[in-house]
Amino acid sequence: MGKAKIMVIDDEKIVVDMLGMHFKNNGYDVATFLAAEPALERLKEERFDVIITDLKMKGIDGMELLKTVKSLYPDVHVIMITAYAQLNTAIEAFRGQVHDFYPKPFKIKDLLASVERALAEQQAAREAE
């Protein structure tokens, strides 16, 4: 099995750069995007294991991205990050099968642990098939 593939989507360049560097340094294959549209195009060509996305973005937002990913690629885990965390938004995200939901600022170690849990769940699901 190769490196797990992580997609990071956020309209703040500093966030995608920081997360991209962090996950690459932890042995993951990472692709970063500043908007959801090119990320969804890439998903048509390449499989990713986990998607980390911002909630509020111009164009397609994180909630719409979550719904699209779960309808087309139900086994891909989506982790949502946001500076606009509200209870009703978190509830909507979990009803949409988000794997985790983190308000900004978040701890990198918590996000890394969430990615590791997502990958472990995917592996367990594949072994159960």
Describe this structure in words.
With 129 residues, this protein is of the alpha/beta class. The chain contains five helices and five strands. A five-stranded parallel β-sheet has the order 2-1-3-4-5, with helices on both faces. Strand 3, helix 3 (62-72) and strand 4 (77-82) form a beta-alpha-beta unit. The longest helix has 21 residues, at 108-128. It is globular, with a radius of gyration of 13 Å. 31% of the residues are buried.
Number of strands: 5
**Helical stretch count?**
5
**Secondary-structure element pattern, one letter each:** EHEHEHEHEH
The overall pLDDT average reads: 95
Q: Per the principal axes of the C-alpha atoms, what is the gross shape?
A: globular
Rounded radius of gyration (Å): 13 Å
Instruction: Outline the low-pLDDT stretches.
Output: none
Distance between the termini: 17 Å
Beta-sheet strand percentage? 15-25%
Biggest beta sheet summary: 5 strands, parallel
| Widest β-sheet, arrangement of strands | 2-1-3-4-5
Helix share, percent:
40-55%
What keywords describe this structure?
129 residues, alpha/beta, 5-stranded parallel sheet, 5 helices, 50% helix, globular
Quick structural summary:
The chain is an alpha/beta fold and 129 residues long.
Sequence-ordered SSE layout with sheet pairings:
Layout: E1 5-9, H1 13-25, E2 29-33, H2 36-45, E3 50-54, H3 62-72, E4 77-82, H4 87-95, E5 100-103, H5 108-128
Parallel strand pairs: 1-2, 1-3, 3-4, 4-5
